[in-house]
Amino acid sequence: MTEKPLLEFTGVSKTYISGESQLSILQQIDFSLPSGVSVAITGKSGSGKSTFLNIAGGLDKPTSGDVNFLGKALRHMHDKELSEFRNRHIGFIFQSHILLDDFSALENVCIPSLIRGEPKKNVSRRAAQLLERVGLSDRMDHRPNKLSGGERQRVAFCRALVNSPELLIADEPTGSLDEQSSRGIEELLFDLVREQGKTLLLVTHDMQLARKCAVVYLLHNRELQELT
Ligand SMILES: Nc1ncnc2c1ncn2[C@@H]1O[C@H](COP(=O)(O)OP(=O)(O)OP(=O)(O)O)[C@@H](O)[C@H]1O
Ligand SMILES: [Mg+2]
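Above: the input record for the complex with magnesium ion. Below: its predicted structure, written as tokens.
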């Protein structure tokens, strides 16, 4: 394939410095994520999976090395440019849903598009369609604290998708749910990714979930190994 990857790491290293001590987490990582592919990153707790995702999504900067997204070097973007870039191109899903309790489910889904300055009417229509797609048409006016864990996570999926980002980044998306709701939510995530032709970068310690992705990597000893 000659097509440019959606996301590319070149020699990415990350070292946390606290006081006198240095903690090297990622070392010289090269990684390429083609468009439309789902990739899982697994590894032990503390191996650096979330660190990797945060760098991939431009939420954190590498100590050295380059991250390119759609051929653009994130290193050269200043903070405002970077947050606009994230808002437009990346949808984030985390283990604990960071929904705003003062707003309804529908309003929570709308927020990323309103930040972009889109007219409220268009946004509301799209958000309602997404909520309907995930089976929450009768929960749109609920505040997040009146929803179940699985329902909140479905709202978070909709919010991640509302700006039609190319890339979905998910960090243990079912980590806080019980086994049965987890499987339902996972299926929904993969269905949405497939239907909407998204690229998925998924972090999980759950091998069964990881294997649903086309490519699986293990983060171990600061390096990324592809599992076959
Ligand atoms: N801001 C920070 N400053 C210093 N050390 C950090 C910081 N963030 C993370 N670390 C350390 O880096 C290591 C990797 O953390 P990270 O959160 O990436 O691991 P993880 O693989 O996502 O783990 P888990 O599976 O438990 O979520 C950990 O040892 C953590 O303590
Ligand atoms: Mg983590």
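Notes for the reader.
The chain has seven helices and ten strands.
Residues 16, 18, 23, 25, 43, 45-51, 205 surround adenosine-5'-triphosphate (ligand 1) (CB under 6 Å).
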